[in-house]
Specification:
Elements (H helix, E strand, L loop, with lengths): L7 H5 L5 H12 L41 E2 L5 E2 L6 E4 L6 E6 L4 E5 L5 E4 L6 E10 L11 E2 L2 E2 L2 E9 L4 H5 L5 E11 L7 H6 L8 E3 L7 H5 L7 E6 L10 E6 L3 E4 H11 L17 E2 L41 E2 L5 E2 L6 E4 L7 E6 L4 E5 L5 E4 L6 E10 L12 E2 L2 E2 L2 E9 L4 H4 L6 E10 L10 H7 L9 H9 L10 E3 L6 H5 L7 E6 L10 E6 L3 E3 L1 H11 L17 E2 L10 H6 L13
This protein binds 2-acetamido-2-deoxy-beta-D-glucopyranose (8 copies).
Function: Reversible hydration of carbon dioxide.
InterPro entries: CA_dom, CA_dom_sf, Carbonic_anhydrase_a-class, Carbonic_anhydrase_a-class_CS
Keywords: Glycoprotein, Lyase, Membrane, Metal-binding, Signal, Transmembrane, Transmembrane helix, Zinc
Length: about 600
Amino acid sequence: MKILIQPTESLGTRDLNHKMHHSLLLYLSLGALVKFAAGSDWCYNGCDHTPSEWPQLHGSFCGGKRQSPIDIVTSHVKTDPNLLNFTFVNFSKHVIKSIENNGHTVKCRLEENEVEVSGGGLTDTYSTIQFHFHWGDTEYHPGSEHKIDGHRYPMEMHIVSLKKGLTVEQATANSDGIAVLGFFINATEDGNMSGPWNLLTSHLMSNKDTEGTTNYNISINDLIGNVDLTKFYRYMGSLTTPSCNEAVAWTVFHEPINVNKELIKRFPMKTGLVNVFRPVQELNERQVSASPATPLPPSPWCYDDHHCAYNSSLWHLLSHSHCGGERQSPINIVTKTAVIDEHLDAFTYTKFDDKNAIKSITNSGHSVKCVLKEDTVEVSGGGLGYVYSTLQFHFHWGAVSHESQGSEHMVDSKRYPMEMHIVNKRKDLKLEKALETPNGLAVLGFFIEAADTTKSSGGSSSEHQETHPPSSSTSDMGAWKKLTKYLSAIHNIRSEVNVTEEISIDDLLGNVNRAAYYRYNGSLTTPSCNEAVVWTVFKESVKVDQDLMMLFPIQTGYHNVFRPTQSLHDRTIFSTTSAASAPGPIILFLLLACLCAFPLNLRL
Ligand SMILES: *[C@@H]1O[C@H](CO)[C@@H](O)[C@H](O)[C@H]1NC(C)=O
Ligand SMILES: *[C@@H]1O[C@H](CO)[C@@H](O)[C@H](O)[C@H]1NC(C)=O
Ligand SMILES: *[C@@H]1O[C@H](CO)[C@@H](O)[C@H](O)[C@H]1NC(C)=O
Ligand SMILES: *[C@@H]1O[C@H](CO)[C@@H](O)[C@H](O)[C@H]1NC(C)=O
Ligand SMILES: *[C@@H]1O[C@H](CO)[C@@H](O)[C@H](O)[C@H]1NC(C)=O
Ligand SMILES: *[C@@H]1O[C@H](CO)[C@@H](O)[C@H](O)[C@H]1NC(C)=O
Ligand SMILES: *[C@@H]1O[C@H](CO)[C@@H](O)[C@H](O)[C@H]1NC(C)=O
Ligand SMILES: *[C@@H]1O[C@H](CO)[C@@H](O)[C@H](O)[C@H]1NC(C)=O
């Protein structure tokens, strides 16, 4: 997008009131005074200050960390349920006041205070002032500014709006002072040659700094056509021309406007301007979100055959995959082969009792993951030899049925209903490094089984601990209720919501015996299956209400999210000396399995 920013000095010297200020902006935007605008001696090609030099321009923000445009990598986009429908005011009216060629683009100026945009997750109402275009050359080289998964469209249209009540100067100093709606324009062979795009392009002119003013019989909606306005991406960025102010809440619509390629060719031909787009900029720490209606690409892998190219027997074919290795997880733990290891002592848990440590809950499309606040929760001891930072925990489950079994690990060929994986990273390593280190990650796996419903509801673990029935560890069902309530807010794949309820990991685990566990060297259980995990699978299972467990497959809509067990090869499984708990009924011994887990969504 582009909008002209007049230099502050020129404003400072004039005692402009609000309205005059606005008119000055509009005047400048005609291009007549373009020479005096900050950074006016910039260009896209053929001058001293091409895009790579823009950061050096006086007063420029072009070297900043939230610049635009960007390449939208859809596999990293997250759905944001707050990106609801837009409200557009007077988009159907004939509001184009002038069309000008300012030497950088063609800009259509709108009647003042007529057109407005709100909703769409924007925090305010924005007043639309102009729209303009970016394009390639007459040989049909594409010229959109944003890209989608590396694809550049032939053109892009930017509709620019200022937060209502702000001057341009105020808006450019405000982190979301400007809202730009970006539309990709796609070239078709057979598009309409006589519609509004014909009318618009018939007004293009080559004379720089000239302005045509007739009664343009075109509305914004005429140009947008039938693009689905509920499908869009959002991120925070900048103006795409100097001074590149980092003041823009960007909306990039998913569907392009289809325009006949001969009409697209008129932009470079009739204006004499070619390749007027800025190269894509680094995303840095930013997250791109998508409205709930926006289709995001399915992940290339899945657990079964039905909806992806790589089911679990083909994961080893994925690029960068370790899934065909010899220390893979999960495994079937054959208890009689487990070797007792006295070094497997008690764990030390830091902040497992922190009721505010869970930052957000997200639906990855393969699992439900609770992401923890950074550098808060830790685990050490347990024979690990290092301090590990807890990153997240997530779940594996089966189908919507009381009989369903969906744990990843098995114990003596028994599968449990669910498994919870608490994923920890060696505190002294960065995640990338940890993924390449044999003990870079430590995952704590807990099997989950149905609680005895006669005593489950609302019980606190301490109450039950008094009686200490050996075969029934209990957890705080209130915590599980709070957690599973969030599932309804993350129906959409890759949606994420903040967790504000007070839930600690200790609440979820209850009084399960954490001194009795199995230990082996393994891998992540999802691609890329890095062989970087020291596995701890606890013998005793966590007990949760069956109805709450079933919410996982019901609310996410997917089931049987567990990887089949992998060959042990020459690995040894170690075991603590202690059994799951004090001697108890035989059923208890069945529970003694361990769990492990760890799926991982590494985009933490
Ligand atoms: C958003 O707009 C779409 C299509 O215009 C409509 O089907 C949907 O009901 C709207 N959603 C809301 C929440 O208004
Ligand atoms: C939209 O156009 C109508 C008709 O010209 C006008 O009365 C109204 O003020 C406009 N809406 C806004 C928000 O400016
Ligand atoms: C873009 O146009 C081409 C050629 O007409 C067409 O095949 C393609 O489907 C269009 N792309 C989109 C996203 O509409
Ligand atoms: C082209 O656009 C004109 C004006 O909008 C319309 O009357 C005509 O039916 C359209 N033709 C086609 C083939 O879509
Ligand atoms: C404006 O365009 C519409 C079709 O898009 C047409 O029906 C109408 O007559 C035009 N008005 C003028 C003044 O040209
Ligand atoms: C995975 O897909 C292959 C080829 O389509 C098929 O032969 C195999 O049975 C599938 N495996 C699973 C676990 O679905
Ligand atoms: C979630 O929390 C973060 C701060 O941790 C905040 O910036 C963000 O706006 C919150 N998101 C929602 C949807 O409330
Ligand atoms: C895991 O591997 C390391 C070295 O490769 C070894 O020292 C350690 O004993 C192994 N641990 C288990 C539980 O097998």
